[in-house]
Model the fold of this input.
Amino acid sequence: MVVGERIRLFCALRLPDATLDELERWQRRDLLPEPRPGGRLVPRENLHVTLAFLGSQPAGAVPAVARELGAAAGALGAPIRLATARYRETRSVGMVVLDDAGGAATALADDLRLRLERLELLRPEDRPWVPHVTVVRFRERPRLQPPLPALGEISPSDAAVYSSVLRPGGAQYAVLEALALRVSG
Done:
């Protein structure tokens, strides 16, 4: 990396292959089975559950972000268990919102956010964290009402620090460092 370089960073839970397989099938079969002008499915390699979006940061911040994510990931009190709750749209994205059975994912996100705020790498947010997977992006809200994907219980085994590069065809994400989720105690 170049001295003084800035990169867009975020931390996220990586999804198991079986979850990714089902999300891909569902996207093609039930979400956008026919191409829609201005609608773009999020590709498999970009499907994740964001824990914290840091935005533009000095490239030199990556080790500190990875250290804090590792500390938070190593301090889980229980395994993460997510399940499909509903489909939701905002002005520009469609997402599968997830239930966080037991609250372990929320505890991880909250712990990570506090750690990153202390390092002044993240500004405090007033809104609560909502676990979700962004599955489609669009210019004009289509108001879809797809059946929910049959994801079953989702138990991520790791989290990662990602870089995000904006491209004309959509964002390109790269895993900079992956860290195992470990239940303490």
Remarks:
- The chain is about 25% helix and 35% strand.
- The mean pLDDT is 93.
- The beta strands are 6-14, 39-41, 48-58, 81-89, 93-101, 132-138, 158-165, 172-180.
